[in-house]
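Q: My collaborator sent me two sequences in one message, no labels, and asked for predicted structures for both. Can we handle them in order? The first one she listed is below.
A: Yes, handling them in the order given. First sequence, followed by its structure tokens:
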Amino acid sequence: MNFHYRREYCGPLQAIILDWAGTTIDYGCRAPAAVFIEVFKDRGIDVSTHEAREPMGMAKRDHIKQILLMPRISDQWKSKFDRPATEQDIDDIYRDFIPKQIKSLPSYSDIIPGVPTFIDACRTQGLKIGATTGYNFEMMDICAQIASKQGYSPDASFCADDVPAGRPAPWMAIACAMKLEIYPMESIVKIGDTYADIEEGLNAGMWTIGISQTGNELGLSEAEIAKLEPTDLEDRLLLIEARMKRCGAHYTAHSVADCLAILEEIDDRLASGDHP
């Protein structure tokens, strides 16, 4: 028997799926980086801010594993413990990471300026709102409670604990789509501030927008950004956005607040039969 598949216009844009830290809360994505540095320091291992941030967006246990695989960190570990790091070491570090991260979250969960207004505009246009994160369920729950009091509550939110694997695997995004009862995936836009976010979106078959200013790649608070020369800031953002596009991002924006026009363009592209 022959089956004939005919691809049709999937309809208008139906939803967005947002990251948490660095995208909708925690300007500069500062909470995770600080705790990664601390848990390694507790073991006598020096991890730089750049090294702590490099795997950002992944599930936190996976993030720790990636740090330990970095040559400079691996060499430090072997020198100190006379052996490579093991899966048990990863579990031990992650076990210590969890309470430290949970304790820090209330200090780093403020909504990023412009997010509630952007969400309201999306809802007005009939879009549903999903969220995915590298945090575990307990961490995500704290963030969600704080965000809700500040005017942001996604319709569906998933963490790596809910699915077989976190980013860059697509399962959290697919779980969001299932809960939101939306398909095909190309009618959804993934918005996030890390390369892992972009890869998650691409692997799920979604449009992707990389966020450059408020997130992990720049890694600065609003106060720190205010001290930069405008040309210095712009140069840094251009480099970040170029790297995100090389990673596969369809679009980039300084912040979520700048994404409405991009969503309109994606909707127009869908209407013309374009696909991610």
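Q: And the one she listed second?
A: Here it is, processed independently of the first:
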Amino acid sequence: MQQVFLPGDHARGQWMRFDAARILKRYFFCERSLIISQAGWLAAIPSFDGKTILPTFFWQDTMTANALRERVFELRYPSRLMEIGEDEPLITVFDQARNAPSAEAFVLSLARLFKPALLAAYREYEQLADELADGPILRALRTAITEKMEQVAALTTLATVMLRAAPERQAEAEAWVAALGQRLVEVGGVSVAPPVAGVNGEIPGSRPFVLPDKAARDERFHLCRYYWPDVVDPHFPYGEGIRLQLRSAVSHFNEVWAVETGGAILHAFADDLGWEFIYDAARWTYDESRHARMGYERLKSWGYQPQEIPLGSYIYDSARGQDPVIRLGMLHYFETKNIGKKTKRAEAFASYHDKVSQHDMDFDWADETIHAAYGHRWLDALRALHPDRVPDIDAIRQRCDELVAHEVKAATQQDCQEIAQIANAMIAKAERITHRTE
């Protein structure tokens, strides 16, 4: 007599845990690749909006990727092995994003190809997955779906603005993204199904990624070498009252260099230091982008136009030609150098009844205590990995101090006159504003 069983042919049973883990691992490596590419490109993107919005996006991507990674470990317990494996053709295409021929082409590829591909993949997974078995990752994917929709919209706008400002790069960007899209199709896209072997070789029109020694900057602002006179003139006071309010806002705005540096070190050390470093560096860069926006928003609220606001380059410039560890050291150096002044300045702003400056400085202090720990942790980790190449933290700090001092010493009379003129014009405008409100 044939044995009969209760029916079990149900849609919920289509994936076992290893099936789900294999798909989620694929998504993780896609996200990881884009995080590294977005970080590396920050210094080459001129747009201030681009420099400060991409860190938000790749921090969100990092949160998604971390949830994917942890879920893979749960499903594969006790194994904690994460290898690209069968997904190599797909991840190779994702890695090609960083070899864009221009910043405009890179942002266009995010807006048109990669972010939409992940959005569609997460929607597909959400529709097919079993809520009872795979609920822990569905919450993260639903959040990611919302974020990816917002990212696609914002990146589409950013790409349009950037290409409008550089129309001579439109045809090249369009052609490269089209070729990249075709390659993505050839490997089967991002799907619950494994990718297929695609065509090897570079995408036509690609240019190998190189971190620029001189960062691209938004020409709407007053581009200069030093962003306030006291950097190069010891007789120009840091100031109190409205001078302190302005100096602090300009300093916050000029943390653009820290955004670029955070992206540079994430890209440089992602493979050496692994996922935990990527996780910390993404947060670090995102924090710095918020600080830059803090300064800009305060200056705008006081009536300053972009062309009135100085955007300096000397700190980023001071690490040119150096081992990437110096950029990591530079970021750590400035975090620990200035952290002790934050609470006193917050108190001063409170006494001026400047709640927004107090608020920004207060939150900045909390971020920088975290960043100081990041710097120690990862400089020590790099020294442990490369003791012959990486000096100890004290030696790195000394080297950073020397490099910055050299850059400051190189200031010309024209540099000094230029930034003094900008600062004095800002101060005079602030005095006019305060007189009108008395």
